[in-house]
Here is the input.
Amino acid sequence: MSSLVSVDNLMLGPFTKFSIEIPLNSLVFVTGSNNSGKSLLLKVLAGLVNVKNKITYDKEIIKSDNDISYMASLTFNYDTVLKNIRYSVERLGYDDDKINVLVRDIAKDLHITNLLNKNIKDLNEYEKLRVCLASKIVSNPKLLLLDDPCLFLSPIEKEEFMGFLEQLRTRGITIIISTSTLEEVIYTINSIIYVLDKGEIVSSGEMLEVLSNDSLLNKIGLELPFMVDLSVKLEYYNLTDKINMSPLGMVESLWK
Here is the structure.
């Protein structure tokens, strides 16, 4: 699988000769305890830190800064939802007809059509998150970087939000998410996880492969999602032979 972006021998903060490759059209989680370097890594990939000689982008895909979108907090430039989303494409010089189509489509995709004329201050946190995401992707970037976006979401909201991101990946957007927990990981399909500890990658691979190493994750202060933790314990006692992400899947596995 080809790489969209890679970092080679980075020396910065907790990183010492740090290297990583992000596959094209992937959904990647970067996780770790506090001060592991996960948020700093996203800033490096976003080009916000002057280490460009250490970063290599696929020049056929990442052709300008507009192809990279970075979201670290819920910040807004205008008071209404519509103005905030329009601003992201107006600055690119698109004509009004194209802007209207882009805003309409992204609002529909993120289920915020009914919010377009509302004031930002009247939205709840999950609505604000979706509006902020809409403003970041309405211009169709090729690389989307999200710094701990699900921290205050409920399990139902996390599942829906991950569904939105899965849809974006099918549109050709490579997505990298930093997360301080592993709860949202279970709502994805074929995602890749990089586990950082003190600036080093201590585990990486597909979701189930990484989550199966519960001793390593616990050692660096990460807790397994409840269903995964239960699966690991039941597997140890030969009561199930796989990790189940849902209670229904667990019941079916135990019944067999």
Observations:
- Residues 76-137 form one domain.
- The first helix runs from residue 38 to 45.
- The chain has a mean pLDDT of 90.
- DSSP finds nine helices and nine strands in the chain.
